[in-house]
């Protein structure tokens, strides 16, 4: 992951007089509607004519770990796994919006397995302790009937651009170091590409009903209780709603959006073809379905608690992690 990148936009709506600081993982595609929202605010006619000189937001590399440790951070985006990890010790964390949902993929060498159950006794590459590792366990359990002791987890790295080097999941699977790999995008697309280049028959497993990453936008109870700061956050959610609608356009993303994503995600180096290839795997939610998110949190926290060697949180406790009032306020008028 590259060094921290600061992205600022000048020319926000006049009602927003200060800069929101957002911590987001700049190496994932999921964060990019936030950046598009900022860029659109900058280029809008109303923004240009408002005379406002303060940028509406800045995005710095990070996530929920930053918002609970740095009071200068107002918003943060991450997958639900990291939110659970931080909420266990920071009960002031709040989920206020779902930016994206991603149905992860697991790819196996067909010679090793053509069904999840066939991966018994095999080596599965992923990144332990992450949402990808949770996905692998859930898929193999719920679809393949396998428990964690039925296979071996092998740690591997992500890849953002071809050719993928030794130690990355695409390289490991193509060279037979592992039998299958499960990870977020674009690594899995590069896994598929590497298998095709190497001429290795492979099988792709994907089941969004078993697990889809829920990539959320977070704040803290303190930030939301501050009237001035809350007003800025509400204004940003209005912009984000518009950006999400454009990302989720039935006809697909515009060339401008694809270009922005390709040039703004760390490691993609402007690869628009790769962005287009993984786009269908992403659902640009642009909402907050509190009950659905809570169901995911309750089930997943049992796994996170086991990995982190702590007691799982109750459904009642986890319900306080979600605050739907901010989005409701943003949509009032």
Automatic annotation (TrEMBL):
- Spell out the SUPFAM superfamilies in the cross-references: Periplasmic binding protein-like II
Which Pfam families has this protein been placed in? NMT1
Q: SsuA/THI5-like domain: from which residue to which, for each copy? A: 63-195
Report which superkingdom the organism of origin falls in: Eukaryota
Its protein name is: SsuA/THI5-like domain-containing protein
UniProt key word Signal: yes
- Name the source organism: Sporothrix eucalyptigena
PANTHER family, per database record: ALIPHATIC SULFONATES-BINDING PROTEIN-RELATED
What InterPro entries does the entry give? SsuA/THI5
What keywords were assigned to this record? Signal
Keyword Transferase listed? The answer is no
Range of residues in the leader sequence: 1-18
